[in-house]
Structure formats: structure tokens, C-alpha cells
Amino acid sequence: MAGEKILIVEDEKKISDIVKSYLERDDFKVTVAQTGEAALRQIKNTYDLVILDLMLPDIDGEDICRAIREFSDVPIIMLTAKSSEDERVKGLCIGADDYVVKPFSPRELVARVNAHLRRTRKDEKKILSFNGGLLKIDTASIEVLKAGATIPLTTTEFRILLMLAEKPQMVFSRLQIVNAVQGYDFEGYDRVIDAHIKNIRQKIEDNPHKPVFLKTVYGAGYKFIGVPD
Ligand code: CA
């Protein structure tokens, strides 16, 4: 789909130039912010996806991620030199959807951008309702409602919940989940999926330790146990 708007937050011009040219070749409209301050000004505009460098000269990329999440569920792909699993999980915990470790191939980054946007585009529009209307998943507005109140989920959290909720009682492995929502797997994905599930539970379950929607199946993965209306 042509003309989708991407914000690149990156202080290294060499990197942002390369990524920008690859994205423009795919017909994306690209804006570059070279500082955290510029990024915070830019994010007030509407973007379809944000590529966010973690190491910026003025403001920590993680703080920018949090600031975006205060008002938007736009897909965020973080760029980072931090490759440890803990850092990756931390990034996802503050609401990023994906992680690319530097140095990366621009082609791979663009593939991930497309994978994230394709999933947003292709979802069949419908409303799923569970447990007597207690939990509703609206795939048109990409919104989850719990007892009528909007639950703020990130795009990745939404996709995981939707994938499981579309097939109640079916057990999905962590590998199946990561492949379905990210389009690829990576080292340490199992802990990343666990972190996403934990976040979703904290948002949709009355008691995350006694879930009535997202159940852990030990040694196998997860399943959605809500009752369809
Ligand atoms: Ca940087």
C-alpha cells in the first residue's frame, strides 16, 4: 500500500539516509527526526509506523517510546546496539513491538516494516465477543474493550490476543505465536512472548495470576479460554 507514513528517529545520518532510501523505494513517506526533542515534536503527527533508535544524544529512546505509548498504539520498531536478551525484553516491556540490533541489513528492516503493516492491513474487520460481552475485540478499530472500557494494547499485544482469541481452546506454542505476529523468529523469542502475555494479562485479567482469558499450558504454550458469545 503506497504512501504509508514512517517516522525514523535516528541521530546517525548515515543510517537514517540508507533506511530512508530503502523505504522510499517501497513508496513509503518518510520523515526523519535526528534528536529526541525533534521526535517528541513529530510524534504529535500521525504515523503508520515508527523506527526508533534507542541511543540518542539528548533523550533516551526508551523515554520516547513511553511518551508515544501514552497516546498512540502505532507499531514501534526499536534500533539498538544492545543485543542482550534482557535489553530486548525491557524494550518490549515498555511497549515497542519489535527490535532490530545494529548493525542490521536495511533490507531486513524494510521486510519487518512491511510485515508489521501488512498485518494491520489484512485483518478481516469484525468484533469478537467473549464471556457475556465482558471482553470485546474490535478488529476494525483495533480496539479491545473490557466491560465497555477501552484497554490500551500495543499492536503486538493486540495481534497476539487476536490470534489466540480467534481459536478458543487451541494451544499455540511460543514459536507459532512469534512466527504469526512477527513473521520470523529470533533468539530468545520465548521470553519475549512470555513478556507480551504478561503485559496482556495485566491489562485484561481481573487477577493476572488466575487468568480467565489467557491460560498457560505448561510445556506447550498458551491458549485462549474465554467463552465466545
Ligand atoms: Ca544513535
Jot down its keywords.
2 domains; 229 residues; four-stranded antiparallel β-sheet; globular; alpha/beta; binds calcium ion
In short:
This protein has 229 residues and is an alpha/beta fold. Helix content is 40%, strand content 21%.
Written overview of the protein:
The strands form 3 sheets. The chain has a 5-stranded parallel beta sheet, sandwiched between helices. β8 and β9 form a beta hairpin. It has 2 domains: 5-120, Response regulator (Rossmann fold, 3-Layer(aba) Sandwich); 127-224, Arc Repressor Mutant, subunit A. The chain has helices at 13-25, 36-42, 61-69, 85-93, 106-122, 155-165, 174-182, 189-204, and strands at 5-9, 29-33, 49-53, 76-80, 98-101, 127-130, 135-138, 143-146, 149-151, 214-217, 221-224. The longest helix has 17 residues, at 106-122. It starts with a strand and ends in a 5-residue tail after the last strand. The protein has 8 helices and 11 strands. Bound molecules: calcium ion. Calcium ion binds next to loops.
User: What structural class is derived from the secondary structure elements?
Assistant: alpha/beta
- Provide a count of the helices: 8
Number of strands: 11
Question: In percent terms, what proportion of residues is strand?
Answer: 15-25%
Q: And the CATH topology of the largest domain?
A: Rossmann fold
Q: What's the order of the H and E elements?
A: EHEHEHEHEHEEEEHHHEE
Rg (CA only): 18 Å
Could you tell me the mean pLDDT?
89
* CATH architecture classification of the largest domain: 3-Layer(aba) Sandwich
Largest sheet: 5 strands, parallel
Main CATH class of the largest domain: Alpha Beta
Largest sheet strand order: 2-1-3-4-5
**Distance N to C terminus:** 34 Å
Shape: globular
Spans with pLDDT under 50 lasting ≥5 residues?
none
- Helix share bin: 25-40%
Bound molecules: calcium ion
Count the domains: 2
